[in-house]
Design brief:
With about 170 residues, the chain is mainly α. It has 8 helices and no strands. The relative contact order is 0.12.
Length: about 170
C-alpha cells in the first residue's frame, strides 16, 4: 500500500509539474509564434509559483528554495524511474555534454537493466543482478527523498507545510 501511495504521489507531482510548465509556456507565447523551450526559464517560473503560494519573504525563500529544489528533483527522479525512462534517454537534458552524461544512481541502474533486457544473450543471473541493483537504488532514492522532505519540513510553518502537502511535495 505504501509503494502504491508513493507511486500515486509521484505521478501527481509529475502531472502538477507538467501542467504548471505547460501553462507557463502557453501564457507566454505570442499568437502565431512558437517560443523556444527554455528549461531554466520554466524551472524559475515553477519555483516562483511555490514562493508565491508559500507567502515567504526573499530572505526566507533563499533558505527554503534549495531544500525545495532538492525535494522536487528527488521526487522527479523517482517518478521518472518508475515509468522506465531516464532524462538522458529521452533527450530532455539541456546544457553541456558533461551535464547530459550525469545521471543519478537510480537512473543509471534503470538504464543498465534496460540494456540487459534489450540484449538477446542476457542470462537470468545478469537480469537478476541488475534488477536487484535497481531495487536497491530505488529504495535508496526513497530514503533520500524522505530525508530531504524532513529537512524541508524543519523550515516551514504549519500553513506552508500544509500547502506543500496539498501540492504533493510533502507527505
Amino acid at each position: 500500500m505504501c509503494v502504491r501511495r508513493a507511486w500515486v504521489k509521484g505521478v501527481m507531482l509529475g502531472v502538477l509539474v507538467a501542467c504548471g510548465l505547460t501553462a507557463a509556456v502557453s501564457a507566454q507565447e505570442a499568437p502565431g509564434r512558437r517560443r523556444r523551450w527554455n528549461p531554466e526559464e520554466m524551472r524559475a517560473r515553477y519555483l516562483e509559483r511555490f514562493k508565491e503560494q508559500l507567502e515567504v519573504s526573499d530572505a526566507e525563500w533563499e533558505v527554503i528554495r534549495p531544500r525545495l529544489e532538492k525535494v522536487t528533483a528527488l521526487a522527479r527522479e523517482t517518478t521518472i524511474s518508475r515509468f522506465g525512462q531516464t532524462e538522458r534517454r529521452r533527450g530532455r537534458r539541456g546544457g553541456d555534454e558533461a551535464e547530459a552524461q550525469e545521471q543519478s544512481a537510480l537512473a543509471e541502474a534503470a538504464e543498465e537493466l534496460r540494456e540487459v533486457l534489450e540484449a538477446d544473450a542476457s542470462t537470468p543471473e545478469e537480469i537478476q543482478a541488475k534488477l536487484t541493483a535497481l531495487r536497491e537504488a530505488r529504495e535508496q532514492a526513497r530514503q533520500d527523498l524522505a530525508q530531504a522532505q524532513a529537512e524541508l519540513r524543519e523550515l516551514l510553518t504549519q500553513r506552508q507545510e500544509a500547502q506543500l502537502v496539498l501540492l504533493g511535495i510533502l507527505d
